[in-house]
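DM between two lab members

TW: hey, do you still have the Decaprenylphospho-beta-D-erythro-pentofuranosid-2-ulose 2-reductase entry open?
JB: yeah, one sec
JB: this one, 251 aa:
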Amino acid sequence: MSAVCGPPQSLLVLGGTSEIALATARRLVARRTRTVWLAGRPGPALDRAAGRLAALGADVRTVAFDALDPESHEAVLGKVFAEGAVDMVLLAFGVLGDQAQDEREPLRAVRVAATNYTGAVSAGLVAARALQDQGHGSLVVLSSVAAERARRSDFIYGSSKAGLDTFAQGLGDALYGTGVHVMVVRPGFVRTGGTAHLAPGPLSTTPEQVAAAVELGLRRGSETVWVPGALRPVMSLLRHAPRALFRRLPV
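TW: and the structure you got?
JB:
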């Protein structure tokens, strides 16, 4: 079977309180998505997110999910897929961390890596197998332009996203021809509550702009989506810049 492209009828969000994920869910619900599963840590934030989507007319369900507990992922996601077909899985969890503190406290850095990479590998493989078993679906993975090249200012976060990005690309190749479509989304700086304390860089974006790019990517059957699109040539230049020059750039 061919992969499902375009707005899904059913959506599973891994990282159910992510501002980018919720903006994407709202956009898809406004199109044709009718069932939304929000997977995240139980609490008021997850309940509020579910309530707001339900107010838009979606059938919203929540499920307890912890990226740092990979041993539970198969059971948790299995519960969702047992309820019916899932057209799209949005892998949206992740933590930015604090570079200065994480360098001083290695266990904090490990937590960033374990959440953004190890947890994503586990959840991504479980979701991919479930999508493959049902014969169709899309797995959308939120990466970052930080994955493209290590920067002094965020190399711990960037390295975790680089691992995730490479994993997702390889998973897409492994699933090619199975009816499952993998799309990697690489936003630049996204202005959210979690980044409000940081100065937005050039070509910064919003959760709503990322959501629009995700929808367009689904319609096109894209494998990689840059947000905004102008980041693609910019990052190509930065990726190939000599290291001595790159160190002096204000990035």
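TW: got it. The chain has a mean pLDDT of 93. The domain at 10-247 is CATH 3.40.50.720 (Rossmann fold).
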